[in-house]
Design brief:
Length: 376
């Protein structure tokens, strides 16, 4: 736990509760030094006397208020304390308000309040009362020579003091150009979809799941440079142009809301269903593709024989091949059993008659003598 940066008391009516103030936050920013790129020497900052140009030791530095140009009133640490001794030693509670009524942009820095000796009972009493009533204590406190507005809030078993901005330090929201009127008003359907998205994204507050990923990525770059021995080399500027800013365009809010809902965990079921539908469509094409397999040698020979008989021994032409291919693609319809048996016998008879005629023609041709060759 951090050390105490301030000791005093909480002034609660006529009750004084001795407490110590401890920091409740820390900074994880990377400690980067300024360097001279010519020789990598660190650059330091010096406090210089503007009249002589010489550096000044801290022992010779005092604080002063310029009431006129080049005319100052010098203030010592004791002057700051004597200005209001009570204010510098107490967290003075001036009122209680509903904890949810304080806008978050008023808050600045959190601190833990820890009870000192003989302050445990009063601390527990104030904590339990604030927890039970749901109130926040509004107080004034002086830290580091400056008075702060502050809010005391119960957190678990502890009391947290959050320094706040004064009202004149917060810029008025009226200075902003904000959307209004029917032109920018959301439709009932858009609000319904947006509400669904909010409910879809709602979860328990778990701050530990968030961390500074950019800091981690930057540390990876630093460690990679150390490992590669590039401890003094500067990375040249990238040749890639900066990403251009997008121009204004009309936004289809409903489409974006629907897509956003589909990307969340509860929208996974529709995505899986859509994937299954696509799979079914793909498998539906499979029988048609497998039906076009390459024919076997026996099948080729049978087809060639039939083609030869149909065309008088000639190879089928391009048109015949195209007709056969288109005929193969056309689905065949089943004929009723009665119709098939009625038309099957005449077709068989015709085929048998054609075979007999072909055999006779072959026999007649074979019996005729071969023509005599002409003399050379």
């Amino acid at each position: 736990m951090s050390r105490a940066i301030w000791k005093g008391a909480i002034s609660f009516g006529l009750v004084n509760i001795p407490v110590s103030l401890k920091t409740a936050s820390r900074s994880n920013t990377l400690d980067l030094d300024m360097l001279d790129k010519r020789d990598m020497a660190p650059i330091g900052y010096q406090r210089i006397n503007k009249h002589t140009g010489k550096t000044i030791d801290n022992a010779h530095i005092v604080k002063g208020y310029a009431y006129e140009k080049d005319e100052y009133v010098v203030l010592s640490d004791e002057d700051f304390r004597q200005a209001n001794v009570e204010a510098t030693q107490t967290v003075d509670i001036v009122s209680f308000v509903d904890a949810g009524s304080i806008p978050p942009y008023y808050f600045e820095t959190p601190y833990y309040l820890e009870p000192d000796k003989r302050g445990e009972r009063g601390y527990a009493l104030l904590h339990e009362t604030m927890r039970k009533t749901g109130r926040a204590a509004v107080a004034l406190v002086v830290l580091r020579n400056r008075q702060h507005l502050a809010a005391l809030l119960p957190l678990g078993k502890a009391l947290v003091l959050n320094t706040m901005r004064f009202a004149d330090e917060v810029l008025p929201v009226e200075d902003l150009s904000l959307p209004g009127g029917k032109k920018h008003a959301a439709s009932a359907r858009e609000v319904e979809m947006a509400t669904k998205l909010v409910e879809d994204m709602t979860e328990e507050w778990a701050p530990e799941q968030f961390h500074d990923t950019y800091r981690e990525d930057l540390l990876k770059v630093i460690h990679a440079k150390i490992k590669a021995g590039k401890t003094h080399l500067l990375t040249p500027a990238s040749d890639e142009p900066a990403t251009p800013s997008r121009g204004a365009k009309v936004i289809d809010m409903m489409t974006l809301l629907k897509q956003s809902i589909g990307k969340r965990g509860k929208g996974a079921e529709p995505r899986r269903a859509a994937a299954d539908d696509e799979a079914e469509e793909d498998t539906g094409d499979m029988p048609r593709k497998s039906a076009r397999r390459a024919p076997t040698k026996a099948g080729k020979a049978g087809k060639a024989g039939k083609a030869g008989k149909a065309t008088g021994g000639k190879a089928p032409g391009k048109k015949d091949a195209t007709k056969k291919a288109s005929a193969a693609k056309k689905p065949t319809t089943k004929k009723s059993p009665a119709k098939t048996s009625a038309t099957k016998k005449p077709a068989a008879r015709k085929a048998a008659a054609k075979k007999a005629v072909a055999k006779k023609a072959v026999a007649k041709k074979a019996s005729q003598p071969a023509p005599a060759r002409k003399a050379a």
